[in-house]
Structure of Serine/threonine protein phosphatase:
Amino acid sequence: MTNTGRIRKINQDAFLERKECGLWVVADGMGGHNSGEVASKAVIDAMTNVQLPDTLSGKIDILEAALKSVNYQLLIKARKFGPDGVIGTTAVLMFVHHDQCILLWAGDSRAYRFREQHLMQLTKDHSYVQQLVDKDLLTKDEAEHHPFSNLVTHSVGTSEEIYVDFADSEIEPDDLFLLCSDGLNKELSDAEITQVLSAGGSLKEMNQRLIEQTLTKGGHDNVTTLLIKARSTS
């Protein structure tokens, strides 16, 4: 589910659900000339058409290659805006392989796991403020409200070499996974996200509540939330 927010006029976020092959994607575009919208759509288009093989290494390789291809395409498109032109986007991908979820990402769009009323961030932001947190110069809460919190250190389309990060998580019955753009976590704390997910309901209802609370807190950016529920044993 995605929303433009209360301030922006254009939604540069995009998302994809391919339940048939166990692939989910959120992209958060950046740049002027409406180019962020172009960039996030390019990621989604690429992931819509990618064919995943059976092996884990094969899936990782083809998804990383697809991101590298989009990176190259966006660099070419950006040239028409001059040497300082940027057509970029963050991207966070999740796919399921047997009893594992695998995450690939570039930028500060996030993946969380909600298990037994506990929210855990599975990705680590590629951002200037995260670097300060790593050096113990900022707390996580201070980073969310820092004036440079929007500066990403890696993304798709902004440099010749794209850096893609990886993580994995074992999947347990009833696990709930959340992919989101930073429009969510810039407005809602982990505790507030936990409160929404703890209230339960359908995935659509929980997505709606996350978006509604984000808008209530200000909705200063586009916001996208994508919830994935693991099968129950019951």
Remarks:
- Residues 56-78 form the longest helix (23 residues).
- The chain has a mean pLDDT of 94.
- The chain has seven helices and ten strands.
